[in-house]
Every structure is written in structure tokens, then in C-alpha cells.
Amino acid sequence: MADFIQSGRQLYAANEDKTENYKRALTVFTSAMRSCPCARGLERGRCTCKDFEKVASQQNSIYREAMYTCHCDVGRSFSKCDNLHHIEALDLRAATFVAMGLLDHAMKDAEWILELAPQLPDGYLRLGNIAHLQENDDFAWKMYTSGIEANQNTTVESSPKLLQLYGARKPLNRLFFRQDPLYLPAEIVTQIFSCLACDELLHCLGVSKQWAYTLTSPIHARLWRNLTFSAWAVRPSTYGLRKMLSWAGDGGARKLVLPRSMTLTDSMFTLLLESSPSLEHFEFLDVSKDLSFPFNGKTWNRLRYFSFKKGWPGHAGELPHSFFQNVASSLEHLDLVGIPAQWYDEVPRIPHLPKLKTLHMSGTLGINVSFPMYPLSVAFPRLEQLSIGPGLSHLDPAPLSIWRERRQDIWPHLKVLIFEFNCPVAQDYPEDTRLKSMLQSLMCLNRGKPLQHIRFHFDIYPYMFCMIPSIADSLFPDFDDDRALDFQNLRSFSSNMFCLSPKEARTLLSNAIQTKRLTSFDINFPEHTGANHPTSRDLSHLRSYEWARGAPSIQEMGLYHFHFWHYPEDHEHHPLAEFVATFPNLRTLSICSPYYERELPELARLVDMILRVTNLETIYTKNVHNKIFAQLRKAAQKQGVRLMEISEPRQRQWPVRLEA
């Protein structure tokens, strides 16, 4: 049989006189089949009792059809045959029929393989491939799947044909792989349904009794430990909440996210908290004015993250001091919108949170009371990340002497400093001095050495641009010798308006560039006073960054508020394009300036120059959808660069992921 098969293969592969060689190959493969011992010297025919396509359409077992269905003499006269030479000869004969375009003949041989050896993958693979050629993909997918199921105890590594079955089925899975997920392993079921909010999960219980029983069983208790309600969730009944908490098992919910639509009653709120002693993550958004926290002295010693939003124009938030005391032993992350009113007191009642690592706090519009910062350093001594604002611009640095005298002791682990500034129309400018003093004090803590990320974002009206230099001027005024400052661990400095003097920029960034830790920084050019026309001042400011040129660690950069003369369309003559081109690993560039609002063609030319001399992946700028940028959009697309609108809000990670 092996000699017949080898001879047939040579005829099949011959390049000349294809049709004649195919016919001769068919004869040789037929001889190989007939020489199999299973025929016992008799002429063995094919059973015609089986209807695989009908069985597949009725969702019945193709394997059982091949194994047991037979009403003719073939089944009584001959047994199954797993002789590999017999199967190979039939498979090659089917392949020859396919090459000749005789798919019906090929289909009969493929069915014959399946009849002889339903436990082998060969028949399923050949039958599925032919069905696919006939554009009967549904039948093909079912045939591949049946072959995989019939060989579920066979390893893919030991069976090349089984590996081919998986490969052939894969592109069809998207269309036909429909399965009740509850039949999957329990850990996969949990993973699938954990993508749903708990109110969406409740709807799934109505699919069937089996779904309701399975999803609420103890094996899936983890699903109900995450009680995250979607923004449009309808408030469940007290009975419904009690049931969900019971499905969560011992310890109740581990995560609670309550949106604005969840207008809970006091009894519901108390039920959620008291039934969840193992609570780890709690977000309370847009809280009703009338809702109060339970005062029962219960301790949540696993709560690590707490986010609270309560506050309306002209009112500070209110949060029971006792609640913080009950979570003080474990709380690591605190996010507040609407500062608790008692934190503004002359003697602030701020709870002591010894393990707190990250603090994000923002105020609400209409509160013009200065917020004292120093008491926070006493209450949260191990803070690593601090994000202030927006809506909290009235910062009180008093007493300044303590910030100077204890700068080595205050927040020695502070690695992230973020300040977002919102300026209402009726801003009272005398606060600028206090704000500036506060930012200076925070940046100079521990001589800047622990800081890894600094971000200052100013959201103000254009006519208030003149206010920013007064805040940014003299960034490090308290040090007679700026060399005492050391920002060697800085990873990023981001500011859309903070213009550093050449000396301050070098003080802040140069050590981190030398240590190759700095990956991102922004350059803001000086404000143009008087007529808005180009001057040599911007060129001089750019040249003051000569020491930063070509830094291999820089991956992201921002360029803001520049105004250069018009240059020829040659990057070698444009200082910005030439400067950006020196950074070999730069991947993201943000570039915009209010001075180009009426000079968009010039800005488009500049960005195009930069595009041609860099290996950027993303460029952020303004007015990217303007028709003036049409050519630039095409050039960016051709080069595989994303051209994005800079004014669209970007998702920024909080807390910031820190490097060791």
C-alpha cells in the first residue's frame, strides 16, 4: 500500500500533462485502497445510509452518525478500519478529485473516510475543507468542531491533522461559535459575567431558571462582591439589595460603586455598608444632600480606596469624621470632590490616615475660602501622590516658615504632584501670590529628589494669559543656590502654560536627562507682549535648551505658545523642526500656539516639516479637522502617524503608575 501511495503522490505532483496524471493517480490510489486487509479480498463499497449534513443541521452528533448509522450490507459485511495507509489513500484520492474540480466525488470519498475511522481527524478535516470550498461554511464549522470533539483526548502536539482542524476552524469561529457560556468552566463564566455592571447582571437572571440558579450559586459569589451599578441603573429594592449581598457570601461586597441615579434611602445605605465588613473599594458619586453615613462604630479595616463626591455651588461637602476614623487603619487612596467643611475650620478636623498614599481633591465653584495645606501633611504623613484641583485654586501655604524649616520632613515620599487650575471670570488676583508660594513649597520638598511626575494644567480664558507669568515666576526662590535642588528621579514634567526660565528648566530637568529617567517634558515659550508678531525671543528661548538636545530617553514632548518667523519648507531652516528631530526615540508630540490661530497654513507647514524628519507615532495639535490640514492628514496617514485634536480631553491614569 505504501508503494501505491508513493507512486500516486508522484503522479499528483507532476507538473506536465496534469489532467492525465490526475487520472492515473486516481487509479493508483484506488488500488492502494483495495489492497487493505479490511476488505478480506472482497470489493468493499461505501455505506450510503449516512447523512452528515442533515445530522449537523439538526444539532445532532456527527460522530454517532458515522459510528452507528447503517442499514445496508456494508455495515454487516465489513468492520471499521483505522489502517493509516487506507485512510491516506482515500484522502489523497479526495484531494485529487478536488484538484480536478470534481467536488461531489471528493465529498463522497471524504464521507467514506469518516465512515471508516470516525475516531480520527482525517475525515472531518477533508469533509470540512470541501464544504468550505462549496461555500457551506456552517456545515464546515460543525464538521471541524465534531472532529475536535471526537479527538478531545488527543494532544495537538501528537496529531498534525488535529492541529489543522483547529487552524481551519479558527477563521469561522467569529460567525458560528455560539455556545451557552454557562457550560464553560466556572472560572471562565465568572470572568465573562464580571464585565457586566451588577444591575446588568440582574437582567441575566431572567434568561432562564438555570441561569438564575447558576449565577447566584456560591461558586460565582465573586460576581456579587463587585456591586458596581451603571450610570443609568434604577434603584433596586431593599429586598433586592439584601439578596445581592447574600449571593456575595461572607464579607458581603468588596467593591461598591454608587452612581447619581442610585437615590438610596438611609436604610439602604446602612444595609450596604453594614453587610460589607470586607469592603475594599468604595465610590460614592453625586450624593444626595439628605443621605447620612451610619454612626455605629463599625470598622472597615480592608477599605483601601474611597471616592466621595458631594458638593454644590457655594457649599463645601460634608463627611462624618467618624467614618474616616473607622477606615483609617487601611485607607490608601482617597478621591474627594467637595472638600469636607470641617477641613476648612480654623483648627481643621482632618482625620489621621497613616497609610494614605494617594490624594486627589477638587473643590466646587463658588467657594472662595482659602484651603489650608499644611494640616494635610500632618494628617497624611506617607503621601506619595497629590493631585489638587480643578476648583481648588485658593490654597493657603501658611505658615510659610514651617514649609521652609521642615522641607526635609514634610511628605518625604511624595513622587507625584499635579495641580489643575480653573480661573473663574471674577478671579481675585491677590490670591496669585499665595498660590505661587504653595506650588513653590511643594516642588522644593526634600529638594525635589523623590518627585517622579509633575503636571500643572491651567484652564483659563485667553485674556488672563498675563496672569500666569506672575504665578510661574521664580519657581525656586527659597534657595540661594539652585544646585541644592536635585530632580534626578523626575520622569515627566507637563504644563500647558508654565514657562520656565532657562535656569529653572535646567535645574528641573537636566539631572533627570543625565540619569536617563526623564521620558517627557513640555516647553512653553515666553508671552508675547504688545503686537503679536514674531521676535527673536522665542529663538533665544529654544537655544537655551541646547543641553537637552538628542536625549535618548525622551519619548513625549509638548511645545506651546511659540511664534517664529516664516521659514522655507526645509526642516534644516526651521529651528523647531530641527530641534525635535534630534530626539531619536520621540514618539508623541503635542504642538500648538494661540499665535497661529490666524496662521493655520504656517502651522500645518511646520507640523509637516516635523513629520518628515521624525519617527513619531502620534501628533496632537489644534484644528486638525480644518480643510487647511487636509494634505497634512493624508501625509500623516501615509506615514502611519495618528493626527489628533489637542483640545479633546485625554484619559490620564490616576493614580499614576510608578516605577520602582
Brief summary of the model shown:
With about 650 residues, the chain is of the alpha/beta class.
Give me the CATH superfamily of the domain at 2-178: Tetratricopeptide repeat domain
Examine the secondary-structure arrangement and name the CATH architecture of the domain at 2-178.
Answer: Alpha Horseshoe
Shape descriptor reads flat
Instruction: Please bin the fraction of helical residues.
Output: 25-40%
DSSP strand content: 5-15%
- Are there runs of 5+ residues with pLDDT below 50, and where? 312-317, 426-430
Question: Remind me, CATH topology of the domain at 2-178?
Answer: Serine Threonine Protein Phosphatase 5, Tetratricopeptide repeat
Mean pLDDT: 86
Number of helices: 26
CATH hierarchy class name of the domain at 2-178:
Mainly Alpha
Mind telling me the C-alpha Rg? 36 Å
Can you list the strand order of the major beta sheet? Answer: 1-2-3-4-5-6-8-10-11-12-13-14-15-16-17
Q: How many angstroms does the end-to-end distance come to?
A: 67 Å
Overall SS class? alpha/beta
What's the main sheet like?
15 strands, parallel
Number of strands: 17
Pfam family, one: F-box-like
Organism: Claviceps purpurea (strain 20.1)
Domain F-box: 178-227
Protein name: F-box domain-containing protein
